[in-house]
Amino acid sequence: MFGKSSILSMGAELQALRLLRAYGVAAWLRDCGRATLLLPLALLGCSSVALPQTEAPASDPNTAAFHKIIGDYLKGSFKDIGSYDSFEISDARWVHTPKGWRWLSCVRFQDRAHTQTYAVFIQTDSVVDSRYAVTTDGCGKQTYLPFDAIPSTAKPSGGIELDPLH
């Protein structure tokens, strides 16, 4: 049947197959290791494409100009701005939003005896976004001053004047 030489040759072939299989796994692991090391470098190159790099402005914004921009925007955006009362505004802050770096100013006002806060985002002398303020806007921690760009208008009272309850 099998001679001594054929058994030895089969053993040598098996040993060669084992070495080849072991070398193949080692080469595969080595290649995976190299790919793992190169992946962060490839992703790093793509990261600057998604995020626009806007440097912080050299100085604070012109407060009077910002107040005028915000006042004009709110007068055009709010349906019945005359029904709101006690407008106050915070100083503008340079903040990062999902759309990039913007100036944020918070406007606080009374709407039927309830305090409302509105966040206005400005870039290059125009309003680019606005919304009722959310916690991440940080409007609750700001200091407010009277907002003269939106004058308080006299509301019809039907002849009855009541003092505020606060």
Description:
The protein has 166 residues and is an alpha+beta fold. The protein has two domains: 7-44; 63-146, no CATH class. Helix content is 37%, strand content 27%. Strands 1, 2, 3, 4, 5 and 6 form a six-stranded antiparallel β-sheet that branches. The longest helix is centred in the N-terminal third of the chain and has 47 residues, at 4-50.
Question: What helical percentage do the residues reach?
Answer: 25-40%
Average residue-wise pLDDT: 77
CA radius of gyration: 34 Å
Strand percentage = 25-35%
Structural class assignment: alpha+beta
Apparent shape: rod-shaped
| Biggest sheet layout | 6 strands, antiparallel
What count of structural domains?
2
How many helical stretches? Answer: 2
Question: Regions with pLDDT < 50 over 5+ consecutive residues?
Answer: 154-162
Question: Using DSSP, what is the number of strands?
Answer: 6
So what's the oligomer here? single chain
Encode the helix/strand succession as letters.
HHEEEEEE
Q: Termini distance?
A: 110 Å
